[in-house]
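Hey L., structure's done. Input below.
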Amino acid sequence: MTGHATRFGRRVALAVAVVAALGLGTAVGSPLSVLVGVGGALLVARSAAALASDATAIRTAGSLGLAVGGLSLLWPLGYGLFAGGLAVTVCVSLAVLAVGVDAVAGDVTALGRHLVRTTVHSGLVLFLVAMGGVLVAAGVVPATGSAVAAIPPLSAWPSLALLVALQLQALAVVLALDLATVVLESWVGDTTDRIDGVLADLAHLGVSLTDVSRWYWGALSVQLLLLSLVPRQFDAALAALPVLGAVVRITLASGVLHLSLAVVLCLVLAVLLGEVGRRLLVGWLAPSPPHTLAYAAGGVAVSLVTVVIVAVPGSLASFGLAAAPPAVVAVAPLVVLAALVAVLLVSGAMAVLVRFRSVPDGAPGFALGAALLAVGALLAAPTVFPPIAFAGVAAAFVVWDVGATAADLGRTVGPDAPTQRGEFVHAAASVLVGGVAVGLAWAALFVVGPLTAAIPRWRATLSLALALSAIAAFGFALFD
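Output:
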């Protein structure tokens, strides 16, 4: 007794939801968008089930499918804006997603845990790639290069400024070398005497911030003060020395010393940054690197595909995009991240229904999907042929009735019990009742409609509110 719905009932509920979603989407004029959205919803449901597998390869495929399916699920937000019926298409696609999760994935609690991890790990990769695209698109990287290129040559700097810069570089090198030596020792571990001797020599060169003499800090402060007050006075002092002054001036202005220290500083900082990156990577991959990489596979794949596409000349034009490559790199990963968050929200809504006992165990997706399907039918009612809207609402009740019955049978006799014949009769009766209701509603349009006199708007609104309240009270009474 797992609490899952029976296999036959959940398949019937999913089939009814898919047919109703496609019918409503086609009726409002968005056949392509609803087809892609429903396909994405089914792929997400199947991928969510794969995430719960213990096999790393299957979990990786689930992460990839979740990213692709989530992107397809959000297709109506882009295509539906131009094809019409956006709200209807989104509602029915999410309805198929909710029903599909119950029909394919099963336990929503365990599923939510895997979805959260996938969203976090894949979302981190997508966010970092998107931020890189934002920096390039905003001109931060080109502006940095332009700022570096605008730095005047060293020959135009005062000699005192060059001397102070040289001291600051040397100070940065010895301070960073003190930290880098510890990092290198942790990297190499037990090595030969020669490497140990090199590391010992580097350790002697490095100093900590507290080891720097106060007298030197005072001397450096005096130099900075003179540089701000009389920057060219040091050049005059060097000019008074016939040979030595010229040598010092030429040596400082040549940049050889500055360049040498800059190279050493870059190497030392590379070691420190490598250690920071290593610790971040280890912290991200912990406690199980294979599982973490499997969860992040969707975000990595989307990022790589996006970067490769924008790197190929003319590829954006073939996709009908006129945006600049950096803008695409910034937006595309964020769209996939939004899709993952949308899937996570649907799963969270199902978990809330289970947590507060709003619906029976094993049927939160059927309940949420039926509600979204009914809302989609109501939104489509003003623009479609009336029986189509009636059929959408009837399909919502069939999805809930068949799904709830399958969940109840799963709790009582088990999801693998041979209940197909009884469930088939029950499903056929539900469809028959729904068909009769659609026929009666359509007949009421011709029988009651023409005989109805105009009434004030507030009375019509009040009547509708009272009717909905009565239906809700009747539903709660049956539930109790």
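The longest helix spans residues 325-355. The CA atoms of residues 286 and 292 lie 8 Å apart.

-- N.
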